[in-house]
Amino acid sequence: MAERTVVLGVTGSIAAYKAVDLASRLTQSNVVVHTVMTKNATHLVGPATFRAITGRPVSTEMFELTNPFAIEHVSLADAADLVIVAPATANVLAKMANGIADDLLTCTLLATRAPVLVAPAMHTAMWEHPATRENVERLRARGITFVGPAVGRLASGGTGIGRFAPVEEILDEAFRLLGRHGDLAGRRIVVTAGGTHEPVDPIRFLGNRSSGKMGYAIAEAARDRGADVTLVSGPTALRTPGGMRFLPVATAAEMLDAVRGAVVNADALVMAAAVADYTPDAPAVSKLKKTDPSLVLHLKRTADVLGSIGDVPVKVGFAAETENLIENARDKLRQKGLDLVVANLVGKDSAPFGSDANEVALIDKRGVEELPRAAKREIAERILDRVASLLVKA
Ligand SMILES: Cc1cc2nc3c(=O)[nH]c(=O)nc-3n(C[C@H](O)[C@H](O)[C@H](O)COP(=O)(O)O)c2cc1C
Which amino acid residue places its CA nearest to atom 14 of ligand 1? Predict the structure, then answer.
């Protein structure tokens, strides 16, 4: 996200303090954040907080002489790769819908050609008022992206719709919009992630140690490079990422069905999921009781995902092995007609499962590239570098 600029508009909602976290998370992702606060927002949070968090001046006045943007307020609008209004009051939505430009934020919103992302926050009655409904519809029709509001407890008392959306959800959309011109723009990429749960009885299942973190990192990185992503995920403890299609599945058979549907017209398939090779032949319809001293489960082979899908221009597989890693990964590359295999060596401590970092080798027809141990997101970027160049060739 380096060298991307976000103009963050903060308005006079009680949720303004939550925009500090948003500013912080954007800044930590190397985004340049210019905060523009409405006068009313400054009654709720001090500009000094945003200045300290973003390391940049904060604009609050259109005619402030010390502000370099005061002479040419349009330059902020031009500098923006994305304008985020978070939180957005009912008032600012009304101004936006009507093209009113009576302060620096609304001037910037009128002057910018960058995409605009809005996270409204207000009392339920304000959100449900016909005036706000009409304004929101007009803004949506103009291509403005909305995140939230969520349903939940409101500062004004009670619960209902109007709560500021979780910062993660705003970031998902922000990164998707910021990445729209990336090297995977326009590419349709299907990513599988997580393990599968094969039912033994209504209570128990056979599973594996996959956390889903690697696949989720690939899906998020692909989204942030402009791809149109479908994530097919087995059960995980991870947050469902936004800015992509999400298909939750439980069993290997469901995974196969979902992938089969998702890959129609896809440009690339990255299979990071750990799909069960065997499944109980006949899962018990009621809970198995511990009456017998031992129990034998009869298992049958699951269908091979790659063997039963149509042609996808670029296919990437994963191999987790406890021994002969490179040899086994090479076999997989050949036998399954893959373009690339990401090979994980699984040690005694069951690494890399659940960890945020990993150490892998990338194996293709030309050879083996061992990547140094790195964060899964970093590894995801290296895998996608390969996918991007394979797509160019394909
Ligand atoms: C403590 C406080 C909290 C407020 N919270 C909200 C809010 O969450 N959403 C909203 O639309 N208006 C809220 N308002 C009303 C706005 O501040 C008011 O409409 C103001 O004119 C908005 O100005 P701005 O959009 O230029 O920031 C609040 C007002 C006060 C005093």
Answer: 13
| Total length of the chain | 394
pTM (2 decimals)? 0.89
The neighbouring-strand residues paired with 233 are 193, 248
Domain ranges within the chain, ordered by starting residue: 5-178, 188-393
Q: What is the CA radius of gyration of the chain?
A: 25
In tens, the pLDDT along 218-249 reads 999 999 999 999 999 999 999 999 999 999 99
Q: Can 5-178 and 188-393 be said to share one CATH topology?
A: yes
> What's the CA-to-centroid distance between 87 and ligand 1, angstroms?
10
Give the closest residue to 265 by CA, choosing from 291, 294, 228.
228
Confirm whether 98 is a catalytic residue: no
Atom of ligand 1 nearest to the CA of 40: 27
In this structure, are residues 20 and 45 in contact, taking their beta carbons and an 8 Å threshold? yes
Are 80 and 110 spatial neighbours (Cβ–Cβ below 8 Å)?
no
Secondary structure tally for the chain: helices H, strands E: 12, 22
User: pLDDT of 112-139, one tens digit each?
Assistant: 999 999 999 999 999 999 999 999 999 9
Residue located via tokens 């819908």: 97
The answer regarding whether domain 5-178 maps to CATH 2.130.10.10 reads no
- How many other CB atoms sit within 10 Å of the CB of residue 280? 18
Coil vs helix vs strand at 283: coil
For residue 22, the SS3 value is helix
User: Which among 8, 17, 40, 108 is the best mutation to test ligand 1's pocket, defined by most ligand atoms within 8 Å of the CB?
Assistant: 40
Cβ neighbors of 367 (< 8 A, separation 6 or more) are none
Q: Are strands 357-358 and 374-375 parallel, antiparallel or unpaired?
A: antiparallel
Domain spanning 188-393, CATH architecture: 3-Layer(aba) Sandwich (3.40)
